[in-house]
Amino acid sequence: MVSPRRTGAESSRTRALLIHVTERLMRQDGYAAVSSRSVAKAAGVTPALIHYYFPTLDDLFLAVFRHGAEKNLARQARVFTEAQPLRALWELSVEPARTALLSEFMALANHRKSIRDEIAEYSRRFRRQQAELLASRLPDFGTGPDDIPPAALLFLIGAVSRGFVAEDPLGLTDGHAETRALVERLLHRYDSGALAAGTAAGTGSEDDGAGEPDEDGAW
């Protein structure tokens, strides 16, 4: 059971450092490499300081997850303001750094109920935001929710990207190139309509950096 106790300040720089170090360990070596000793060694502090800010490992994992989740929600909102939102969303979904960390949390959720519940709640918020934002942009593609149900399209994007993440490390790539090519053709079909709508509205197609990888927390 996750302890609700917090003895270290939420705004502490040390707490932020510990979250960053833990995230880096998960990216590099997987969630199993995370312990109070390994985080302390990587951060140059004592294990006791880890427990001061995070009484349990679940507290630490949840802090890392929430940090990334909030940044990811904000990043996703920016994606849907771009001239080619579907392409930007696809590129975000298959981004290696983002998907690798999320995969570690998914694996961790199999063993820790608190993580599983947190991922489920975040996923519901994430999909609701996606669906609302996508529905607002569908007219740019000359279509609507009756032709392309946002929830169905978003589920397909997520399923395909998770398939890549699960199979790539195993060297199982049959059909991957063909799927990427198919997605590219479909995106190209809608890109021209979105660009035309963006130009007419004066939004243009300048890159504001929303599609760039964020190594500090967003995934």
Put simply, the count of helices is: 9
Q: Tell me the series of helices and strands, N- to C-terminal.
A: HHHHHHHHH
Low-pLDDT stretches are 203-213
Strand residues, percent: under 5%
What is the tally of beta strands? 0
What is the terminal-to-terminal distance? 26 Å
Radius of gyration: 19 Å
**Biggest sheet statistics:** none
Structural class: mainly alpha
What's the average pLDDT?
A: 83
Domain module tally: 2
CA-based shape: elongated
Helix content: 55-70%
Description:
With 219 residues, the protein is mostly helical. It has two domains: 7-55, Arc Repressor Mutant, subunit A, CATH 1.10.10; 62-201. The protein has helices at 13-29, 36-43, 47-53, 57-79, 85-93, 96-109, 113-137, 150-167, 176-201. The longest helix has 26 residues, at 176-201. 23% of the residues are buried.
